[in-house]
Amino acid sequence: MVDQNAALGLIDELRVAVPEEVRAAKRINAEGERIIEKAQEEAERIVGRAQEQAAFLIDERGLTQSADAQSRVIIADAHRDADEIRRGADEYAVGVLVGLEGDVVKTLTSIKKGIEMLDERRSLIEGEDRADGTADGEADRWEDEAAEPSHNSR
Predict the structure, then answer these.
(1) What letter does residue 46 receive in the DSSP assignment?
(2) pLDDT digits (tens, 9 = 90+) for 88-101
(3) 3 by DSSP, 3-state: which?
């Protein structure tokens, strides 16, 4: 049989000891929950930073793509402008060359007319000399004599 006093003493001791153990278990449980909460907060913070970084990289990539697209537009515009300037310069050069060609043609026509006029004059002079009876050799001699200084002028 069980000693009633001893059993009651054990129950009293258990009543005193159990709440202390329960409090210790509750404290350990609360500490565990606090650590878990802290770990969750840290995990959320890490995930948040990762999402921010991912968003930044996506934005940066978008900016890079936008900058690439804009640079392609600028280069295309520059090529278009260069082609237009080149076309204008070519048109100007053609205009200048056509004008120069016209001037050269006029000058060449004047030269040809001058040569023809001199040829006609020479033909007339030669025809007159033949009509006077002077030979070509005599005309040349008279020209030579006219060119030489006179010895009588001293």
Answers:
(1) H
(2) 999 999 999 999 99
(3) coil
